[in-house]
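Researcher: Re-running this chain for the archive, since the previous output was lost when a drive failed. Same request as before.
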Amino acid sequence: MTYSAESDLQVERVRTLFRRKPVVALDQLRQALGSSGRTVFRVLDRVGYLTSYSHARGYYTLKSIPSFDAHGLWFYGEVRFSRQGTLRATLIFLVRQAPEGHTHEELEALLGLRVQNTLRSLVETQEIGREHVAAVFVYVDAEPRRAAAQLDRRRQRTVMAAKAAPA
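Model: Regenerated structure tokens:
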């Protein structure tokens, strides 16, 4: 069998595996191909894949499988995927696109996992900003004008919510 024919056979094995199971672990891919991790990733590159942002990036799916929600997220059971790829990139995207920024709790609810350490790291590297608003931290865009607009909207919402609350 030629290299190309063998490679095509490996691609078909991976596609067959993903037709049966839309999300798989690296060990399952190695077993299906009877190959090393390097070969698995070479085949995955050919078919187009995503890595989970949950479970220490331990699960894979084909790019063609997920039906992402409005936030670019897709969950398969407890396994989480993002159109953005990594948890860091996903957090930056979610914070930047949020009209009012996001609190830590809002981000955890959206993503379905703990994000505190990653948020702290993103603030330390100035990839996002953080401001205290009404007794909570709000994570905002790193760009000062966009952050100011997000904070203005968050403060307005906080004032409106306080006025609407029963006395």
